[in-house]
């Protein structure tokens, strides 16, 4: 695990965006795994600058990590919409090449299998962008998730629902109880895992991920088993390392 500590969230975004840009220059049809949440936003903004400066992303595909189950199609906080706003539109990706698990599907388990199949058919994820939850989750793989899991339905923990209530007018009753998430097994198959984190609130999770034992109590610790993982954190998130 390569750990890069930089002064602030903007620098986290710049370093992470440069790693992504390097890949796209080398492999114009790269497959990116994209995360939602606030952590990767500076990365997407910095990447947007590189696209404005001529980085060609017309051949890039993207697969989102996760999605809420039960939100209506087009709900502003569904990850399909967040990815459309923050990734597809910002970077000018071809919408046909951007995939998000179908949390509104009638048959969600089949939608999960089809999602895994679509990732395989695209040749796998070259670079997976990740944030980390304050409880150490990646995607929506909450503590106690199998370290070998694939894309499937999961129950959200009370901690994560509370953390994410800020996106739902601070009204816990509006936060979905279930989600679809790529599994840790899916994430470990990516060519490179690029995790970004900033702020004091992530310091404990970052320390457990990087220096704690590998185990399901901290799903992100599985990245210690990844053949190539890069962690870019600001000084506050690195404060307990
Ligand atoms: C959410 C997402 C994760 C994200 C995490 C942290 O629940 N499913 O993919 O990494 O929480 O979010 P944030 O970056 O806003 O702190």
List the helices and strands and how they pair.
Blueprint: E1 2-6, H1 9-26, E2 31-34, H2 41-52, E3 61-64, E4 66-68, H3 79-91, E5 98-99, H4 108-121, E6 127-130, E7 152-155, H5 158-164, E8 178-181, H6 184-188, E9 192-197, H7 203-211, E10 229-234
Parallel strand pairs: 1-10, 2-3, 2-6, 3-5, 6-9, 9-10
Antiparallel strand pairs: 4-8, 7-8
Helix pairs in contact: 1-2, 2-3
The structure holds 2-amino-2-deoxy-6-O-phosphono-alpha-D-glucopyranose.
Would you kindly provide a written description of the structure presented here, covering whatever features stand out?
- This protein has 241 residues and is of the alpha/beta class.
- It has one domain (2-234): Rossmann fold.
- The chain has 7 helices and 10 strands.
- The chain has helices at residues 9-26, 41-52, 79-91, 108-121, 158-164, 184-188, 203-211; strands spanning 2-6, 31-34, 61-64, 66-68, 98-99, 127-130, 152-155, 178-181, 192-197, 229-234.
- It is globular, with a radius of gyration of 16 Å.
- The protein starts with a strand and ends in a 7-residue tail after the last strand.
- The model has no long low-confidence stretch (mean pLDDT 97).
- Bound molecules: 2-amino-2-deoxy-6-O-phosphono-alpha-D-glucopyranose (GLP).
- 2-amino-2-deoxy-6-O-phosphono-alpha-D-glucopyranose is lined by residues 35-39, 65-66, 131-133, 139-140, 160, 164.
- The site of 2-amino-2-deoxy-6-O-phosphono-alpha-D-glucopyranose (GLP) has 14 residues, from helix 5.
